[in-house]
Amino acid sequence: MATVTFEGNPLHLEGTLPEVGKKAPDFSLTTNDLANRTLAEYAGKALILVCVPSLDTPVCDMEVRRFNTEAAKLSGDVVIAAVSRDLPFAQARWCGAHNAKAVVTLSDYRTGSFGKAYGIYIKELDLLARSIFIIDKSGVLRYCELVSEVTHEPDYDKALAELAKYA
């Protein structure tokens, strides 16, 4: 079982990180209006999944704001989605409070199946580990970053440079 830390304390992850270069695992996530979204619905677009424990924490807030700014600069062939286990209503509130219109928010609150399929479900906290996945237009996983310490930010520059290859 893989682990990450929270302020140096180990936390256990359920599932296995998907393999870069292989088809990305399918998912069913919930939008702010309670509709389901699957990986197939993003076919033909490059997709970056920015996974965070909760939008209502300082590091997650800062991270998703940064990706919202970046998303506004991208073409319609790219979708940046922030994924958390926050309720869709909380995600919508956060988006409204921060004028986040370029990034899509998706929730794994119903079953946690996304977190387990992508190997980032934190068993002890019932949250997702901070991570980034880039999926190309044909549904192949091209990049994966699992941030080893939950309170740290991801490598934005590396993720955005990688995304540029598939946008």
Overview in brief:
The protein is of the alpha+beta class.
Characteristics of this structure?
alpha+beta, Glutaredoxin, 5-stranded mixed β-sheet, 4-stranded antiparallel β-sheet, 11 strands
Give a written overview of the molecule:
Helix content is 24%, strand content 29%. By secondary structure, it is an alpha+beta fold. The protein has one domain: Glutaredoxin, CATH 3.40.30. The strands form three sheets. It has a five-stranded mixed beta sheet. It is globular and about 40 Å long.
CATH top level is: Alpha Beta
Principal-axes geometry comes out as globular
Computed over alpha carbons, the radius of gyration is 14 Å
What percent of residues adopt helix (DSSP H or I)?
A: 10-25%
Low-confidence stretches: none
How many strands?
Answer: 11
**Terminal Cα separation, in Å?**
33 Å
Main sheet attributes: strand count, strand direction, barrel closure: 5 strands, mixed
CATH topology: Glutaredoxin
H/E series: EEEEEHEHEHEEEEH
Number of helices, where a helix is a run of at least 4 consecutive DSSP H or I residues: 4
Superfamily (CATH H level) name: Glutaredoxin
Oligomeric state as shown: single chain
Q: What is the percentage of strand-forming residues?
A: 25-35%
Task: Give the name of the CATH architecture.
Answer: 3-Layer(aba) Sandwich
Mean pLDDT: 95
Q: State the strand order across the main sheet.
A: 7-6-5-10-11
Number of domains: 1
Helix/strand-derived category reads alpha+beta
